[in-house]
């Protein structure tokens, strides 16, 4: 078996074992070890064509190598966090709010199979086959979003419906691409525009571009922080990797009369709307969703503006996004050891009981906003510089969006600093007199330090990704 196919065989093969052991801590440990091993394999396996299946190349390219390593590492940390949270929750009498205590029983085996599907999607260089694998992953993702909650199915239904709508659109686009390639690769401007329309609409649904953002924000709002972070990290990263590879394989798509401009406009609009709504949220889960939406808009705008540094900037932004969302998810989940909700009216004064978790949420949030002295500032500044040369009016919308996300997290920080312990409604929100578990505290501190240190010294993050970027033959002017 080609070595790259082990990235599919390992997580999918171990999933049944993890399912049988899902009620025991051993299942979580096995899942975390397998994802960490898969990350190591992804980082060290040779790139190139793996095999040809029915005339279609199956290739492990440098971009997929980096993004899959990122996904496996993030999932391993989320597995470990959920295990530590389960241990810390053993003394709780009841599970309230979005945290039911049952998330891992679904999340551990399902996430392994989902990652296997994402690997298969990344190895395929045919848009139709990739879309089918991503659709299969989306169907399984519904169980991760829903877990064992029965009170609401809104988030899972929105996700499944919107993602499924993109599949037939991509199959049409793939059919047209095959026709053009069989005809000798000669395409007219009209044919390019027709294909670009299908491609643009499909990726708009996948990337939660406004007004199709309902699946992303509702997932963040209704799912537990760990499972929401898994969805918000893995799905967009795989989709962005697919979009970049599509431009690499079909450079004539960039000759469309409207596609690249539409990508920039869609990215700026999504970032602005995400930031605007983020400033008005009243809880950290809702805020995480709109902050993630803002960041998706920025990444999409980065891809649309093009330039020599396009791939490295997109990769850095995806890495920063992954880091920030993991930090926010772990910190928010730690708060749930003390309160039944992460709403601002429920977490007043919590910074005194859980200072590191509180700081982790805020630092992760402003990192997504691209604030100075955080890891998110370098790609955000590169985007602003490039956009200023093309259309300065776009810069204003992005800055307003960033301010909106920052205002949202500053409002959350103000609530965390509030020391009004005498209010009766506040007292009722306390689950138990819990403190930050030591191992979770260590993870949070490490992630916060990475956010700050890579913000002060961005070369620490840029240099490891530069080699990958140089090996991706993409240049959009």
Percent range for helical residues? over 70%
Kindly provide the radius of gyration, computed on alpha-carbon positions and rounded to a whole number of angstroms: 22 Å
Category by helix and strand content: mainly alpha
Count of individual helical segments: 18
Give a count of the beta strands, DSSP E runs of length 2 or more: 2
Q: Regions with pLDDT < 50 over 5+ consecutive residues?
A: 424-429
- Could you report the average pLDDT, rounded to the nearest whole number? 86
Sequence of secondary-structure elements: HHEEHHHHHHHHHHHHHHHH
Question: Which strand order does the major sheet show?
Answer: 1-2
Summarize the main sheet.
Answer: 2 strands, antiparallel
Described by the principal axes of the CA atoms, the overall outline is globular
Separation of termini? Answer: 40 Å
Proportion of residues in β-strands: under 5%
Summarize this structure as a short list of keywords or feature phrases.
2% strand; mainly alpha; 477 residues; 18 helices
Question: How does this structure look, described?
Answer:
- This protein has helices spanning 6-20, 25-44, 62-88, 103-123, 127-146, 154-182, 189-206, 214-222, 225-249, 259-278, 284-305, 310-335, 355-368, 377-390, 392-417, 424-427, 438-456, 459-470, and strands at 48-53, 56-60.
- The chain is mainly α and 477 residues long.
- It has a two-stranded antiparallel ribbon.
- The model is unreliable at 424-429 (pLDDT under 50).
- It is built from 18 helices and two strands.
Which SSEs are present, and which pair or pack?
Elements (H helix, E strand, L loop, with lengths): L5 H15 L4 H20 L3 E6 L2 E5 L1 H27 L14 H21 L3 H20 L7 H29 L6 H18 L7 H9 L2 H25 L9 H20 L5 H22 L4 H26 L19 H14 L8 H14 L1 H26 L6 H4 L10 H19 L2 H12 L7
Antiparallel strand pairs: 1-2
Helix pairs in contact: 1-2, 1-4, 2-3, 2-4, 3-4, 3-9, 3-12, 4-5, 4-9, 5-6, 5-9, 6-7, 6-8, 7-10, 8-9, 8-11, 9-11, 9-12, 10-11, 10-15, 11-12, 11-14, 11-15, 12-13, 12-14, 12-17, 12-18, 13-15, 13-17, 14-15
